[in-house]
Amino acid sequence: xxxxxxxxxxxxxxxxxxxxxxxxxxxxxxxxxxxxxxxxxxxxxxxxxxxxxxxxxxxxxxxxxxxxxxxxxxxxxxxxxxxxxxxxxxxxxxxxxxxxxxxxxxxxxxxxxxxxxxxxxxxxxxxxxxxxxxxxxxxxxxxxxxxxxxxxxxxxxxxxxxxxxxxxxxxxxxxxxxxxxxxxxxxxxxxxxxxxxxxxxxxxxxxxxxxxxxxxxxxxxxxxxxxxxxxxx
Length: 233
Prior knowledge:
Distance between the termini: 94 Å
Strand content: under 5%
Strand order of the largest sheet: 1-2
Largest sheet: 2 strands, antiparallel
Helix content: 55-70%
Number of helices: 10
CATH superfamily of the largest domain: GntR ligand-binding domain-like
Order of helices and strands: HHHHEEHHHHHH
Number of domains: 2
Structural class: mainly alpha
CATH class of the largest domain: Mainly Alpha
CATH architecture of the largest domain: Up-down Bundle
CATH topology of the largest domain: Four Helix Bundle (Hemerythrin (Met), subunit A)
């Protein structure tokens, strides 16, 4: 009696192929090179090593970073999507300059987004959440004589309030807007008396949060951004 060799089924072949691919596939890297480059460029922009309006010399930067121009160009696309870099046809990439209208629009949006978050936090935050915000406010008070740490702690306070609110879409919008705001706002807190005013506004906001006054928190956060706009614009 003649027997026939058993042929592998399509399903078993596919499983075998999948296992082989899994076994031989190289491990994924922690982060693409262009993302590292984007972060380095982002920090140079925030530090004013690259000033608003400055042309970005791709060749010079590629040499300085020890990379080819390909990951640099990919990094510039990331920053252009964030609004930090402006691509001009046949002229290359420039650090974005903020017009007065740009500043007004960014502050208006931030005021709306963060005031709503403040109202929600006032209504629903746990005692532990409020204690964490109070601790950040205490750090802010201690740093009022030094603008750079004050600015960093101030941002941590605002971002923590958004984390407590828990709306991830709002968080992403605010993070993107705050990146653009740093093109202009980083120096607004340095204006005479603004640190003291900002701290007083935070103190009033903390009182409203502690009192569970949602509408008061909304109103105070809106005023906080309106006053910040006057200092920044």
